[in-house]
Design goal:
The chain is α/β, with parallel strands linked by helices. The protein contains 10 helices and 16 strands. The protein has 2 domains: 19-48 and 65-225, no CATH class; 233-373, Rossmann fold (3-Layer(aba) Sandwich), CATH 3.40.50. The protein has helices at 5-22, 25-28, 104-109, 137-153, 168-177, 214-225, 255-264, 277-286, 322-329, 360-370; strands at residues 31-38, 41-42, 65-66, 69-82, 87-90, 93-94, 117-119, 125-128, 159-164, 184-188, 192-201, 239-242, 268-270, 289-293, 309-315, 333-339. The radius of gyration is 22 Å and the shape is globular.
Length: 375
């Protein structure tokens, strides 16, 4: 008798759910260690009287809340790593909750390629500290750096899995953390690796993105303490704007006009890629106010001193709270306004360029209001 297609699909779904339950980290890990307890947080602005601002309805995070969250390290044994997606397999089955936003059909389609697996079992214990977007500056700074720091501070002897080739700026961030590059174990993004023992850090795949992580703050402070570049006048500016003029995504058609208006108000226009990591740390350490469109360059606010004012211009098609949370971590004074970009919200794409122009007169008025709080 032929089994109806709807029944076959239903059986597959049941098997898939059961399979994903059996192979979750909690069940396959031989050890689970709590790294930190992140406190609850929300988007309420408490650092000043909001009534002193006009048009506050543009602030997008008034009702946003996150409960307290524990962050863990898991020890896995005899697993295979797909280095492109940074997904682990155990006994040929995928561990579904060990990655950053790989879900659905893509996750279910991933398989071990037995004839292509490279044995790294002789490397002993290794640390997995990054996600599959490791070359994105935000993902590296917000996910990988805290995880590398936590692994280093554990005192456990092992090697750090790092992308190959390791980009110069990635290498420098590891050096600033105090990691001996001799302890780094390179992995090619297009390969799979058999590993005998792995410490998997949830920090490395964004579990603390929306939680106030003290380990993240400690990691950035460790980097600051190891900066070797001397402080120069050209690196010290009270007010900075992070430009996206040369960026590929979320382009703003009238950014040149915005930049000209900001220059007239005394803002230093910063393209972070023109500066070394050490220089960027100094620039953000000395800033009293940082203005930016949503973008990876804002990850540098992790280096700002407590009390620095952060003003983020949020595109309506991608209202992400990640930099609000970084501000809460560092005790920075955050404000944001959301602007209608004209991008179809029914088909969200966080990479899309703005269709509408930015309301520059509104931004300048807002800056006049926020600058009153500069200390």
């Amino acid at each position: 008798m032929k089994v109806p297609q709807f029944l076959r699909l239903a059986v597959r779904r049941v098997i898939r759910v059961y399979y994903h339950f059996i192979f979750r980290l909690n069940r396959v890990a031989v050890q689970k260690v709590k790294l930190e307890q992140c406190g609850a947080c929300d988007g309420q602005v408490t650092w000043f009287d909001v009534n002193r601002l006009t048009d506050t309805e543009r602030y997008p995070f008034s009702d946003w809340k996150r409960p307290a969250k524990a962050i863990y390290r898991y020890r896995l044994e005899n697993v295979v790593l797909d280095a492109y997606y940074m997904v682990f397999f155990k006994n040929g089955g995928i561990i579904p909750n060990c990655n950053h936003y790989i879900t659905g059909e893509l996750l279910n389609s991933l398989k071990v390629r037995p004839n292509e697996v490279i044995s790294y079992e002789d490397q002993g214990l290794v640390f997995s500290c990054s996600d599959h977007w490791e070359n994105n500056y935000f993902h590296w700074m917000a996910h990988a750096i805290p995880a590398f720091y936590a692994a280093l501070q554990s005192g456990i002897q092992g090697k750090f899995l790092v992308p190959s080739p390791l980009l110069p700026w990635q290498q420098r961030t590891l050096e600033l953390l105090g990691i001996d590059l001799e302890r780094c174990c390179p992995i090619n993004k297009y390969k799979q690796y058999a590993l005998s023992c792995v410490d998997y850090y949830e920090l490395g795949t964004g579990e603390a993105d929306f939680a106030v992580s003290n380990l993240s703050v400690q990691a950035y402070q460790q980097m600051i303490s190891n900066v070797k570049v001397s402080i120069k006048q050209e690196l010290c500016h009270d007010k900075i704007y992070i430009s996206r003029a040369n960026k590929e995504h979320r382009n703003l058609s009238n950014e040149a006009e915005l930049i000209e208006s900001l220059k007239q108000k005394g803002y230093f226009i910063l393209d972070p890629e023109l500066y070394s990591i050490d220089e960027q740390i100094i620039i953000f350490q000395n800033a009293k106010m940082v203005v930016a469109l949503l973008g990876a360059g804002l990850a540098n606010i992790g280096f700002c001193k407590p009390g620095t004012i952060i003003y983020e211009l949020i595109p309506s098609h991608h209202d992400n709270q990640c930099f609000l949370v970084m501000s809460l971590q560092g005790k920075l004074r955050y404000w944001a306004d959301k602007f209608d970009t004209g991008v179809d919200h029914n088909r969200p794409d966080h990479l899309s360029a703005w269709v509408n122009e930015l309301d520059i007169p509104f931004v300048i008025k807002r800056l006049d209001e926020l600058e009153q709080f500069i200390k």
